[in-house]
Amino acid sequence: MAELTKNFAELKKLIEAHHFNGALAVVNKTQVLFEGAGGYAKFDMSVPFSADTPTGIGPLGQQLVIAALLRLVEDGQLKLSQKVSDFIPEYAHAKEISIKQLMNQTAGLPSYSAVIAKPFYEDTSKQVPTDRVALQIDQHNLKGMDFENVLAVIGQLPLAFKPGEKSEYADSNAVFLGEILDRATDERPVEAILKDYVYDPVGMTETKLGTEHSFAQNYRWIANNPDIIGRGQFDLTDAGLVSSLHDMEKWAQTVLARKLLNDATWEEAMTVKDGHFGYGWLKSGQWYQWGGQQYGYSGDMHVSMDKGVATVWLSNVAMPDSDVDTWSDALQQFRETL
After folding, report:
1. Which of 2, 10, 225, 276 could potentially form a cystine with 167 if both were Cys, beta carbons 3.0 to 4.6 Å apart?
2. Do 245 and 51 form a contact (C-beta atoms < 8 A)?
3. Cα–Cα distance between 116 and 142 in angstroms, integer?
4. Nearest 5°: phi and psi at 337?
C-alpha cells in the first residue's frame, strides 16, 4: 500500500507538471484508487474542472454505443453478420458492409470529418496557422450535423478500401452504428436505448447524448491561450456523448469485472489481433485502450486485465499534438508502475 501511495503522489505531480486540464482516475474492479483534477471547466469564469464535471468525452463514448448494440445481439434482436443494407439501404455500399466490420473498423468507410476538413485546408491562406483552421472546422461541424449530413458527405464516395481488407479508424463507422441502433429498435431515440441498455445497468447518472449537455466549455489551445470552440448541439455517436469522470469510473469498473455483457461477448469484443481493432478497443502490450479527441473534448481509457486496474481521463482542451504525445508517454510510464 505504501508503494501504491507513493505512485499516486507521483501521479499528482505529473498532473501538475503537465498542466493537465481535466480529471483523471485509477480504479480496480471495486474501488477508486486515485482521483485527481486540474485546470478549468470554464476558463472565463475560473470554474475548476472536477470529477463531477459533465463534459464531452470525444470518441471514448463510442464504447457505450457498441455495448448497447452488443446487448441487442445477445438479446437476439440483431446479428453482427447482418449487412448495413438491412438498416441503411439508401447508402450506396450498404450491401458490402456488415455491422461487425463497422465495429472493428474494417468497413472501409471514408472518414466524414476528413472529407469535410480537406477543402478548409486547401482554401485557406498558408498564412493562417493550421490550429486556427482546425478551430474553424470544429465550429462548422458542431452546427447541426446529423446522419443525413454525414451521408451527403460520403454517400457517393468510393470506399477507402475493400471491406475486411484491413483495419483503419474512421469516425463514420460509429455514426453508422448509432443510426443502426436507432433503426433496429423501431427508431426509439438513441438516448433512450443507451439509458436502458447501458447507463442504468452500469449506474451512470450523468451521461447523456448531445454536447449541449456538457457543463465544461470546449477549447482549442492556440498561441498559449484557450480559444473557445463552442459546445454546439452535436449528438452523433462518434463524439457526441457527455459524461463525468465519476460515471466513466463506473464504466471502467464494468469492463474490468466483465459485467453488463456475457463473457463470450467480452472476449470477442476485446480480441485485438492481426492488426485489426476490437469492438471499440486497441491493445498495446497488456493494456487495452480506446479514446481520442474531437471538437476539443477528449477521453481516454486504458485497462489491464492482468493488473486488474484501469486509468481513465477526460479533458475539455485540445492541446497541440506534441503536448498530447508528451502527456501520453508520461502516463504510460506511470501505468507500468502499477
Report:
1. 276
2. yes
3. 12
4. -90, -10
Q: What is the CA radius of gyration of the chain?
A: 19
Distance CA 98, CA 119 (A): 30
3-state helix, strand, coil in the chain (%, to 5): 40, 20, 40
What is the C-alpha separation between 171 and 169, in angstroms, rounded? 7
Alpha-carbon span 296 to 306, nearest angstrom: 32
Q: Cβ distance 60 to 280 under 8 Å?
A: no
150 vs 229: CA distance, rounded Å: 21
Nine cell digits for residue 181: 441502433
Q: Any bridge partners for residue 275, and if so which?
A: none
Tell me which residue of 303, 209, 193 sits closest to 253, measured CA to CA: 303
At 304, list the grid cell: 489491464
Among 164, 193, 200, CA closest to 275: 164
Q: Give me the domain span that covers residue 19.
A: 2-335
Write down the residue that cell numbers 498530447 correspond to. Answer: 324
**DSSP state, residue 83:** B
> Cα dihedral sign for 312, 256, 169, 214?
negative
Task: Note down pLDDT in tens along the chain; length 338 residues.
Answer: 445 666 899 999 999 999 999 999 999 999 999 999 999 999 999 999 999 999 999 999 999 999 999 999 999 999 999 999 999 999 999 999 999 999 999 999 999 999 999 999 887 766 788 889 999 999 999 988 999 999 999 999 999 999 999 999 999 999 999 999 999 998 889 999 999 999 999 999 999 999 999 999 999 999 999 999 999 999 999 999 999 999 999 999 999 999 999 999 999 999 998 778 999 999 999 999 999 999 999 999 999 999 999 999 999 999 999 999 999 999 999 999 99
What CATH number is attached to the domain comprising 111?
3.40.710.10
Please check whether residue 138 is in contact with residue 220, taking contact to mean a CB–CB distance below 8 angstroms.
yes
Going from the C-alpha of 48 to that of each of 18, 51, 89, 183, 316, the distances in angstroms are 16, 10, 47, 40, 12
